[in-house]
Give the backbone structure.
Amino acid sequence: MTPRPGYDPASLVAGVIVIALGGLLLLDQADVLEVSAAYMLPAVLAAVGGILLACGLAGPPRS
Amino acid sequence: MSETEPTTPQPEPEPRRLTRSTTDSMIGGVAGGLGRHLNVDPLAIRITFVILVFAGGLGIVAYLLCLLFVPTDDPSAPPVKWGLARTLGAGLLAVAALAILLPDWAWGPAVPLLAVAGAIVYLLIRMLRDDGGTHAARVAARIAIGIVLVALAVGGLVAAAAGSALGGGIVIAGLVIACGVGLVGGAFRGGARWLVVPALVLALPLGAVAATDLDVRGTWGERTFRPGTVAELERGYEMGLGSLRVDVRDVELPPGRTDLPLEIGMGEIQVLVPDDLCVTTEADIGMGAFDVGDGEQGGIDLEVDEGGRVEPGVPELHLVGDVGVGALFVGNEFFDRHGPDRWRDSDFDTLEAGTNRVACLREAA
């Protein structure tokens, strides 16, 4: 199956991860959730790792 | 004899109209169109927009206005519905929230520095784009660009951390989400991986601030309090940043428990108590250390619960501490930190191990 031209799956995955991380941070800052360091730091690291993995697996962006 | 050919009248050149470029476009083609209209390198226009973002959000407002009122150069091109909604919503929300939460952000001291950094980046990129440079010059230019970009990223990290700690966490989290939305939307338009960088520059320090519950709003500096009454004690003390010292040796505590609430965003809390006073402690420390008489302990996300049995009728000082990043000490003498390790030396006498425990179990007089 050929990927659609102009479609970058790495951006999509990275975007979803960034939105999830931003949502977690927003809930924490708005005092809706109390996220301790034991969860927050791994969440940030997992987000960075996931983004790097997505970009690595997808390869360089097509022009 | 030569004949002079009749000169054909040249048509009046059409006045150049400002339009957004569809061929040189990163978001909405504003910079590309402005550059073409003004005969200026669009890269310089883009860098200027970025710098003006840090001038009270002027760059965002100016860009949005251009996006709204400047037509595209290709009337057949589909309207930028999605991009407009995204940029308008996120941009206006960010500017409004920043203007309310961080009034000092507007025209802050970072703008001149950013302007200088932007000019350097522009000149270096121009050097790389023009093929006249030698190989060594191109390598040097790349290294210099890298250094400037790293410096800008570090500056962004510090600014985001400071903004988060000063209460702008919600705004910064919103900007992170906006970057994520941009990434998702950009995925269907060729990709927008560059948005990962600003997203992480904002999210990483905010994550660290959130993990440590750091909040440096309020007073700062070095303050020493010597309460004279129990009522003063019970009202508690709080500071944003610095050294909070409370000397309770002159307070005559009544029988039973007296709470002393203490809070600091970043820094240290020192509490001076008499040796024979029953002291119990309950504290949260995001990151740092504490010594309440049982030796020093440190780490991340510390929950201090130094309580135990207290004989009825014994005057008990119950410390309720909240430290974002820093330390909480209970001892007999204030100390000054003059270097990274000075606080470990003999300048400071923490409570003799177990003294306060013994005092708690001593029968009331």
Residues 37-58 of chain A form the longest helix (22 residues). DSSP finds two helices and no strands in chain A. The CA atoms of residues 25 and 40 of chain A lie 9 Å apart.
